[in-house]
Amino acid sequence: MQEFEMIAKTLEGLEEVLAQELTELGANNIEKGRRMVAFTGDKRMMYKANFCLRTAIRILKPISHFTATNPDEVYEQVKAIPWENYMGTAQTFAVDEVVFSNEFRHSKFVAYRVKDAIADYFMEREGKRPGVRVVGPDMLVNIHIAETKCTLSLDASGESLHRRGYRQEALEAPLNEVLAAGIILMTGWRGETDFIDPMCGSGTLPIEAALIARNIAPGVFRQGYAFEHWPDFDADLLDEIYNDDSNEREFTHHIYGYDNNPRAIEVATRNVKAAGLSKCITLNVQPFQAFEQPAEKAIIVTNPPYGERISAPDLLGLYQMIGERLKHAFAGGNAWILSYRDECFDQIGLKPTKKIPLMNGALECQLRQYELFEGKYKQFREEGEKLDKAPEQRPASKGKRKEFASREGRKQFFTQGEGRKEFTPRGEKEGFAPRREKRFAPDDKEGKRKFPPREGRKPYEKKFEKKEFKPRSGESYPERKRREAREKGEQQ
Question: Is the whole-model pTM more than 0.90?
Answer without folding.
Answer: no
